[in-house]
UniProtKB/TrEMBL annotation, chains A, B:
<comment type="subunit">
    <text>Homodimer.</text>
</comment>
<dbReference type="GO" id="GO:0006433">
    <property type="term" value="P:prolyl-tRNA aminoacylation"/>
</dbReference>
<dbReference type="GO" id="GO:0017101">
    <property type="term" value="C:aminoacyl-tRNA synthetase multienzyme complex"/>
</dbReference>
<keyword id="KW-0547">Nucleotide-binding</keyword>
<dbReference type="GO" id="GO:0004827">
    <property type="term" value="F:proline-tRNA ligase activity"/>
</dbReference>
<dbReference type="InterPro" id="IPR002316">
    <property type="entry name" value="Pro-tRNA-ligase_IIa"/>
</dbReference>
<dbReference type="InterPro" id="IPR036621">
    <property type="entry name" value="Anticodon-bd_dom_sf"/>
</dbReference>
<comment type="similarity">
    <text>Belongs to the class-II aminoacyl-tRNA synthetase family. ProS type 3 subfamily.</text>
</comment>
<keyword id="KW-0648">Protein biosynthesis</keyword>
<comment type="function">
    <text>Catalyzes the attachment of proline to tRNA(Pro) in a two-step reaction: proline is first activated by ATP to form Pro-AMP and then transferred to the acceptor end of tRNA(Pro).</text>
</comment>
<keyword id="KW-0030">Aminoacyl-tRNA synthetase</keyword>
<dbReference type="Pfam" id="PF03129">
    <property type="entry name" value="HGTP_anticodon"/>
</dbReference>
<keyword id="KW-0067">ATP-binding</keyword>
<feature type="domain" description="Aminoacyl-transfer RNA synthetases class-II family profile">
    <location>
        <begin position="37"/>
        <end position="286"/>
    </location>
</feature>
<dbReference type="Pfam" id="PF00587">
    <property type="entry name" value="tRNA-synt_2b"/>
</dbReference>
<protein>
    <recommendedName>
        <fullName>Proline--tRNA ligase</fullName>
        <ecNumber>6.1.1.15</ecNumber>
    </recommendedName>
</protein>
<dbReference type="InterPro" id="IPR033721">
    <property type="entry name" value="ProRS_core_arch_euk"/>
</dbReference>
Length: 473, 473
């Protein structure tokens, strides 16, 4: 009766990881490819994951003092060219609007690939004196970067993200704020909500954001041992302030350039979630993120339907995020497989036999397995079950990274480890920018630099700095 | 000391309503014009209004059973042309991307002006049988319609909105759902949260959405007596289903076209809010909408600062949305004027004298006026004050509409009433499509058709149908 034992619905991870990923996205109805190359349609269940990410992130962003705003999608092409490195970095990826309202435009406009330029145009108007600083702005928006090798959620021509933009009176204040976002917003969310044991580090000069003086990154290890850049927080120095003349009157009555940061995470995190926690049966959604933490399923029969509705209400009243599945006209096995695919942490299954016994079957997606429980005890039992499963996902993520990371001392060993599907730690003094360039020819990159004690180094050449080297998405 | 009696900060409404609107948007820091013609930058306080609108709407949309999703910004130009009326309506307003990733595109893509076409492309894949219906989808997104005569929030080349798209098995089910959104989502939100006494009606054939068989609308009367279309809900019939071949297998085993609806409200509502409730001192935000319902202001002195922080915490704990203004270095008068401009419903002002007496000054933005109150009683007093003010805004909106609407029987009288800054009600049988065309030459339009009893008529030619005629934004 249970369909679990049948032929796998997904290509097994071990057989073909990229195909497993694509299968999962299709079968769990997370997203479809859009009609224009590289775009995607995010289906309700996939969008629900992003919506919950937004909610959790938005609270943390506001706690860090930033306010939401909205800047236009269209940026005059001339803005992009004002910061030399910035335009060099983004020019190859731009989508350009040449016609509007039936006419050719006098100046073509680009669809924002990121908003530093247009934001600075306005910051330069809004910032007058030191009293206006720090200015802390965030926006939730879509951006477009033309993609040659698109992959749903991971690299798409259009994606959804938040981008923070701030201006500060001093270098130190900007540096501290970029670090605060990196740690208190991004790392806190990724570790404690997504359950992904990200590494916090610093990008090398080669991997830095176009226009930044420093880029902080969070790197996650995926199920196949590759790395995914999950988010970045940049110190922009005064580069954009110079290009847009963003100055303030200091306490001493002098005109000074502002120091800036920008930072973003995107729908790419949905891809990271899938590749971190997914298994051959589908997705596994961390309970703290899940929009549906518990599905209460009627196996068959009117009495079971009545019971699951009643139980659903009771569990909702206890503060749990619950969906009732009373579609008894659809075979139970098919529905169970679907909830497994979608990765809902807990299923409560109730059939005619359970009704007599006052029990239900508790199926746990994250550790796997099922056991009968007393229906009466569920409301009390479930919060602990969910927290246990949340912790398990993080532990598994940590154990994977520990077991698949090796300390090496030579470039050859680093490349070998990366190509075998793992991460290598190598002293940055051994590798350096030349070694980095050599690794790049084998599609291996320095994901980030970390200090010996695991903290984020203050500069690229701090003694004892270690490079983390891997293949990446 | 109080700046209220000084020269007005805004152009008075009676002097020049459009200039008052623009002054308010600038001085209350709601938005700026964007660099590309017709675009806008929504500043944090303005975005906060939209964010609260989103929250309130999103709950109602989900209660109506729709799920959020996301469709791509870019639509192949060929999609638009599949529904003849639709392309005719939107072609003049399109922004077209011709280059991407440094190359000219094989097929130009348009930036979505609305998403019926791309949504139907996917609905036709997702809908197989009657079991998949109704399919109820909503998205929060930006859209672009090139504007020749832009005005911030009201008519912008890019705006933010939600657009709902649904597919149903029968005409009746689609019709009922469009009406449900119109009534339970839009009207409920606009009347009970925005405090705007909108009229619910039906658009004439001339004013219908391009591709719809029926458009339901909500029309609000602004402070100058003009009308603003605040939102619309469309019955699309099978027009898009035919164009995209969106069919389902019925219970009888036949392939049938789906019946569809689409519905949207946008950042235009922010403009409607301003023009409905604003006065010569600035905005007045309805308490149920306000992100900041109460500002607790220290007039001067360290003791007052301590007191307002403490009081702010106490009021927040009582479930009120509170901001503390302890910027005693900035003149009190300037801050008070600013909060008036921003329309925060209630100010609690505390100075040295109040501390001794255990009192505070309670200033109410909506009815105007201030009076001393006991600090101890505030937490108990304020919820009732806020609800009273919420009700007052709706009453004022209702009274304005009643006093500035006249029943007329001839086209000449209707035009005269509209041009004098009011609405006219005229039997549709008197006016008809020819009269409507004649009025259009004087920039007067039929805002909607209503039944004699105020309900929404089932067709254009139901006996007793009344046309509401006005100038509009």
């Amino acid at each position: 009766m249970r369909a679990m034992a049948k032929a796998p619905v997904l290509t097994p991870q071990a057989e073909d990881f990229p195909r497993w990923y694509q299968d999962l996205i299709n079968k769990a109805e997370l997203a479809d490819n859009g009609p224009v190359r590289g775009t995607m349609v995010i289906r309700p269940y996939g969008y629900g994951l992003w919506e919950r990410m937004q909610q959790e992130m938005d609270v943390r962003i506001k706690d860090a003092g930033a306010q939401n705003a909205y800047f236009p999608l269209f940026i005059p092409q001339s803005y992009l060219t004002r910061e030399a490195q910035h335009v060099e970095g983004f020019a190859p990826e731009l989508a350009v609007v040449t016609h509007g309202g039936g006419k050719e435009l006098e100046e073509p406009v680009v669809v924002r690939p990121t908003s530093e330029t247009i934001v600075n145009e306005y910051f330069s108007k809004w910032v007058q004196s030191y009293r206006d600083l720090p200015l802390l702005i965030n926006q939730w928006a879509n951006v477009v970067r033309w993609e040659m090798r698109p992959r749903v959620f991971l690299r798409t021509s259009e994606f959804l993200w938040q981008e923070g933009h701030t201006a500060h009176a001093t270098y130190e204040d900007a540096r501290d704020y970029a670090a605060r976002i990196h740690r208190d917003v991004y790392a806190d969310f990724m570790i404690n909500v997504l359950g992904i044991d990200v590494v916090l580090g610093r990008k090398t000069a080669k991997e830095r954001f176009a226009g930044a003086i420093n880029t902080l990154t969070l790197e996650g290890m995926m199920g196949d041992g590759k790395a995914l850049q999950m988010g970045t927080s940049h110190e922009l120095g005064t580069n954009f302030a110079k290009a847009f003349n963003t100055q303030y009157l200091s306490r001493d009555g002098k005109q000074e350039l502002v120091w800036q940061t920008s930072w973003g995470v995107s729908t790419r995190m949905v891809g990271g979630l899938i590749m971190s926690h997914g298994d051959d049966n589908g997705l596994r959604v961390p309970p703290r993120l899940a929009a549906v933490q518990i599905v209460v399923m009627a196996i068959k029969g009117d009495e079971a339907v009545t019971k699951v509705r009643e139980l659903g209400d009771r569990l909702k009243a206890a503060g749990l995020r619950v969906q009732v599945d009373d579609r008894v006209d659809t075979p139970f096995g098919r529905r169970a497989v679907d909830w497994e695919l979608k990765g809902v942490p807990v299923r409560i299954e109730i059939g005619p036999r359970d009704l007599e016994a006052g029990t239900a079957m508790l199926a746990r997606r994250i550790p796997g397995g099922k056991e009968p429980v007393s229906v009466e005890q569920l409301a009390e039992l479930l919060p602990a079950v969910l927290e246990e499963d949340q912790a398990l996902l993080l532990r598994q993520s940590r154990e994977r990274r520990a077991s698949r990371t090796s300390d090496v001392t030579s470039l050859a060993e680093a490349a070998e480890a990366a190509n075998a599907g793992g991460w290598a730690r190598i002293p940055w003094s051994e590798l350096g920018p030349e070694g980095e360039a050599e690794l790049a020819q084998q599609a291996v990159s320095v994901r980030c630099l970390v200090a010996e004690d695991g903290s984020v180094p203050d500069s690229d050449d701090a003694p004892g700095t270690v490079a983390i080297v891997a293949r990446s998405y």
